[in-house]
Specification:
With about 375 residues, this protein is α/β, with parallel strands linked by helices. Helix content is about 45%, strand content about 25%. The protein is built from eleven helices and 15 strands. Adenosine-5'-triphosphate binds next to α1.
């Protein structure tokens, strides 16, 4: 589902932008602070409604401007249908349009135009934040398992209600009834996640072998409560602590992923380059499962592709990417050997001082 054009106003240093992209590989090169990451950020914003660099929209809006305006057109390859996405984001408001229809939820964008971003910020987030790790697995479930998102919204509502009850001691007699409903949805969510992790590991082994030359990379899921216990018992045992602190400690909102080499967490044993490739392997495995389940293809954003990778690993990665039937955006400060040799055709863009200049498609 390639993004074929993007018009943007007021994203970071870009005042106005209109770019037509290639359906497969788009290489974006330029000096530091030229706007390469900002261009990927504009695509991510259109696809997800928020940046991968900042949870808040304020830093992304160009200094002195009030709102971001984005219009993008993507192609549904199987049908040939072109869909237009529109997003206006002010400091505290947003408006989403899909083919001219107003949508109330930002999630409508993500559903329509799936994007996977792998940037230095997502690496940092995956290593340091359980929330980001949960978001990684939930990206797949959001797209692949129709019942996951409604279950997740229901769980969040029940959790908020339970936390309110914990803080209101006059209502404690009703907690057991609320817990029963919460546990039911929690187990449903855990079931979806666990099922996905099993399939994920199958695909991960293949990408790990290709990118790292090792098969010992695995991902495991911690459900968010003590292993070997059922959640209803954990909630009962935790009730005093939950009441004292005013929130629920255990549940799928505290689930976590662990990425390991031969059983050891990669953050403890892997080099920087290996960590980068391991996360890429994890995301490519997700993408291949996504394609298998939906028949659709997400767009992949790879910021600073060459950073921390030697030529050989970079070239290997580009060969693997060339085999996946997805649109790929890569950024780099220089257009060098691995970038120019792995693909038969790509579109090259130079980004400098907030201006994007497109070169003719290149065939090496
Ligand atoms: N809200 C904003 N308004 C205007 N300019 C901004 C805003 N936010 C960031 N910038 C500027 O945008 C410029 C481009 O940043 P960007 O991160 O896109 O560069 P880059 O090409 O990815 O650089 P690098 O190679 O160092 O990663 C920076 O100089 C930054 O200061
Ligand atoms: Mg950058």
């Amino acid at each position: 589902m390639p993004l074929i054009s993007l018009q943007a106003r007021n994203v970071r240093l870009f005042e106005r932008l209109h770019v037509d992209f290639g359906e497969r590989l788009n290489v974006i090169v330029g000096p530091n602070a030229g706007g390469k990451t900002s261009l990927l950020e504009a695509i991510h914003l259109l696809a997800v409604g928020r940046s991968f660099r900042s949870a808040r929209v304020n830093p992304v809006i160009r200094k002195g401007a009030d709102q971001i305006v984005l219009v993008g057109r993507y192609l549904e390859a199987s049908s040939g249908v072109v869909t237009t996405l529109g997003l206006e984001r002010g400091r505290s408001s947003h408006e989403v349009k899909i083919d001219g229809r107003t949508e109330t939820r930002l999630a409508a964008l993500a559903k329509a135009f799936p994007v996977v971003a792998i940037t230095p910020d997502t690496h940092y987030g995956f290593e340091n934040s359980a929330k980001q790790r949960r978001a990684t697995i939930d990206w797949s479930l959001f797209h692949v398992e129709q019942q996951f998102f409604p279950a997740w919204l229901k769980y969040r509502r029940l959790l908020r209600q339970r936390n309110a009850l914990l803080r209101d001691r006059t209502q404690h007699a009703t907690l057991a009834t609320w817990d029963a409903g919460l546990v039911c949805v929690a187990e449903e969510i855990q079931g979806y996640r666990q099922g996905h992790v099993q399939a994920w590991n199958g695909a991960l082994g293949r990408y790990s072998k290709e990118l790292l030359g090792e098969t010992g990379l695995t991902v495991t899921l911690k459900p968010g409560w003590r292993q070997g216990m059922v959640l209803s018992d954990v909630l009962r045992l935790d009730r005093e602590r939950d009441t004292e602190e005013g929130f629920t400690h255990a549940g799928p909102h505290r689930a976590d992923l662990s990425l390991c080499f031969d059983g050891q967490p990669i953050k403890d044993v892997a080099s920087h380059g290996q960590k980068k490739l391991a996360l890429i392997a994890l995301k490519l495995a997700q993408i291949s499962l996504f394609i298998e389940h939906t028949g659709r293809t997400p767009t992949l954003l790879l910021d600073d592709l060459t950073a921390e990778l030697d030529h050989e690993h970079c070239a290997r990665l580009l060969v693997v990417l060339a085999r996946l039937p997805v649109q790929v955006f890569v950024t780099a400060t220089a257009f060098d050997a691995p970038l120019s040799s792995a693909w038969t055709e790509f579109r090259l863009f130079h980004v400098k001082h907030g201006h994007v200049a497109q070169s003719e498609p290149v065939s090496p």
